[in-house]
Amino acid sequence: MHLTCNEYDNYVPQLSVKIIRDDGTEAEPNELGRIVCRLPMAPGTMLNLYRADDRFKKTYFEKFVGYYDTSDAGVIDEHGYVQVMAREDDVINVAGHRLSTAALEEAVLEHPEVVDCAVVGVPDQLKGHTPLAIYIRRAGTVLHLSRRELKISIILGIVS
Q1: 129 forms bridges with which residues in the sheet?
Q2: Most-buried pick from 2, 13, 41, 146 (CB within 10 A)?
């Protein structure tokens, strides 16, 4: 059973998921914004950060007053389904450059033979991190590129 945001409100009291713009106004359907939960939240949800009560309040409750800030970016479609698009803090340091994993994933997804992917930072002693793309090939496709050609194709997609 799939539950939409509107249906979820009915099943879980006191949990209302919204998408909010940076100015605090509610986003339109399919508009990218910050995923938040309206307060108060149900008992048993996260109560604090270990030995960091002030950081807990500042991180999750100060930017959008009256809401719990998930630090996730996403959309709610016209049917009420939530899609998480990225984490605010999903940034990796590669040779002194701060790279967004979401932007790298977007570039990988531009390849016609890739249907889904995730990019993570793998620790590297020289560069800090090296991006690693884990991808799923489109069903029924035959990989026509060598691994090297695929890498070059993706890198060119990022640069262009």
Answers
A1: 123
A2: 41
Q: Which residue has the tokens 């939530």?
A: 82
H or E stretch at 49: none
Q: In the sheet that 91-94 helps form, which strands lie side by side, from edge to edge?
A: 97-100, 91-94, 128-137, 114-124
In tens, the pLDDT along 17-45 reads: 999 998 999 999 999 899 999 988 877 77
Write the DSSP symbol of residue 26. B
What does the radius of gyration of the chain's CA atoms come to, in whole angstroms? 19
Residue 3 · residue 9 · CB < 8 Å: no
pLDDT confidence bin for 3, thresholds 50/70/90? very low
Domains of the chain: 5-86 (2.30.38.10), 90-159 (3.30.300.30)
